[in-house]
Amino acid sequence: MKVPSNIKEKILGNPIIDYKIRSNSVNSILSDMANSGGFESKNLSVGVEILRKMEKDTRCTKFLSFVGSIISTGVRGIIRDMLKEKMFDCVITTCGALDHDIARANAKYYSGDLRMDDRVLLKKNVHRLGNVLVPQRSYGPQIEEKVQSCLKTLYYDKGVRDLSTYVLNELIGSTLDESSFLYWAHRNKIPVIVPGIVDGAVGSQLWFFHQQHSDFKINVLSDETKLSDLVYNAKKSGAFMIGGGISKHHTLWWNQFRGGLEYAVYITTSSEWDGSLSGALVAEAISWGKVKDMALQTTIHGEATILLPYIHAALIASPT
After folding, report:
1. 42 counts as catalytic
2. Structural domains of the chain sorted by starting position, each given as residue range(s) with its CATH number in brackets
3. Pick the catalytic residue: 62, 248, 290, 292?
């Protein structure tokens, strides 16, 4: 069967162009990615362009979601700087992100190796998170001291008995240094919402406090009211979602109530064949009404600690 020439022209409209690195400009390289035919490099180029448009759209309420593990790495500095630069209006993340942010504001983590002997590490009182080494003294004791201090301030000094996660995170952020993403969220009045607050060290400290103060409660429905206000007051909405799980889903879930996101960029290492939320492409969310059918959207398959430095560098660089 002969394909009409006009159809051929539409399909074959964008020839592959080889890279020609002309400078050390991140924008120059990403621009080449758009026409490279590279399997994920094109998605990266498209994703950066969507984020640029989202950032410039003053009518857009912007959500940032991310998984906790990346805060154990140097990418914490990129999350911090994006909030310092007020690129986003709301953060949705996991309890682990709070754990690592608090711990690293007060102690050191170390670079290790994925193939280290965990039995040896156990004997040396060192936790391993991938190739990140977390001395026990840098983790549990730091989080316990900080969270218990903040809870006592809320309970005894301010008389708080019913507490949302974003109010808790605002107070914790006010006590941390400028290396912390929670500090800059506090400074710039960006709510940090943690729907799975009990799933981590901070959550355990909340439970321990409750054992001695039975009238103290975490009210996650107050967080939902905050999200409701943000979503229903948004003229447009967009999201940069780094990793899947509850932080990604909660971002998509709430935006369905306003008809879906207008901008959506998602980074994942998961595959879609098992039906998981983490593996689901952003496009799948269109069928649920969580992303608009005409949205600017893409999924980038890749590891966040590799991709985020380039993405952030491109967003803050002058256009080529």
Report:
1. no
2. 20-101+162-199+215-316 (3.40.910.10)
3. 290
